[in-house]
């Protein structure tokens, strides 16, 4: 815990510093949600087909899912998602004509979750 999944548009392959983002994200999760740094695990997934709106613009997306052990207050979860949304653009190089859509959400892990 936490288990973090980052889905990103394939068009961001060369422009999204995924490792840098994860290394900045982990301390943010620790500070905001009280997680342990050594327990933070992030995986990124390249999404081949993303469509935003009517699909005519050169839009790209990054969506971050953070799964935590249950018990965080709603204010903590909201603060974390807002901080993550603000962090992502620092790790995506701008490109002319591209609109970057960023979203994040925090979920509770199922009580059956175990790590070894």
From TrEMBL:
<dbReference type="InterPro" id="IPR004220">
    <property type="entry name" value="5-COMe_2-OHmuconate_Isoase"/>
</dbReference>
<keyword id="KW-0413">Isomerase</keyword>
<dbReference type="GO" id="GO:0008704">
    <property type="term" value="F:5-carboxymethyl-2-hydroxymuconate delta-isomerase activity"/>
</dbReference>
<protein>
    <submittedName>
        <fullName>Isomerase</fullName>
    </submittedName>
</protein>
<dbReference type="InterPro" id="IPR014347">
    <property type="entry name" value="Tautomerase/MIF_sf"/>
</dbReference>
<dbReference type="Pfam" id="PF02962">
    <property type="entry name" value="CHMI"/>
</dbReference>
């Amino acid at each position: 815990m936490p288990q973090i999944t980052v889905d990103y548009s394939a068009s961001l392959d060369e422009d999204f510093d995924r490792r840098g983002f994860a290394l900045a994200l982990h301390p943010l999760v620790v500070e905001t949600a009280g997680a342990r740094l050594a327990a933070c695990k992030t995986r990124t997934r390249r999404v081949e087909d993303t469509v935003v709106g009517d699909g005519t613009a050169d839009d790209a997306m990054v969506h971050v899912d953070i799964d935590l052990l249950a018990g965080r207050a709603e204010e903590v979860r909201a603060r974390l998602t807002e901080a993550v949304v603000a962090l992502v653009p620092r790790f995506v190089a701008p490109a002319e004509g591209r609109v970057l859509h960023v979203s994040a959400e925090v979920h509770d892990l199922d009580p059956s979750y175990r790590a070894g």
